[in-house]
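Predict structure. Chain length: 195.
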Amino acid sequence: MSSLLQDIQVPYLTISEYVKMEEQSTEKLEYWNGKIKKVAGGSPEHNLICGNIIGEFKILFRELQQHFLVYTSDQKLLIPDFDLYVYPDAVVITEKPEISDIETHALLNPLLIVEVLSSSTENYDLGSKFIMYKTIPSFREYIAISQDKPWVLSSYKRDDGLWEDTIVQNVNADINLRSVGIQMALKYIYADIKF
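Prediction complete.
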């Protein structure tokens, strides 16, 4: 797990014990393999980028025929194959949310997941966390955004099951988000960010 996620010293917990613990917590807690991690807050740049991209999704989705829902980093997501509960920076689903029977607030059907990278989360977000996200059947696109420089990765699952990466590093360029049929300008993702 990321170094931004701080271990909470408890013995092995079942999922139901985790759910009860989180209900009583004032902080977001992630769960994996019986261990609990506290999710630390992001930097001002991280939070600006998250707000920018969620706002852009809402604006661009208004013009589409298909209905999409956009969730913030307060929305928990379950990766069932790993019994992993996480809080991505943003999640997009199409039409109707599917919620876990075990934990009533955890989404099961992400179409697109966004993570804003930092030096302490980059390896985890681009490595093992992304590999685990890939096991979710509905998941089609991963957007990773650097907060330190203009750099956006779109990793898209093609119809043949292979993942195709596109990296855009020019703040005046657009990134094509194929899972939702839009192009998003990096200048809006990075609005008010100074490099």
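Summary: Residues 43-189 form a domain with the tt1808, chain A fold (CATH 3.90.1570.10).
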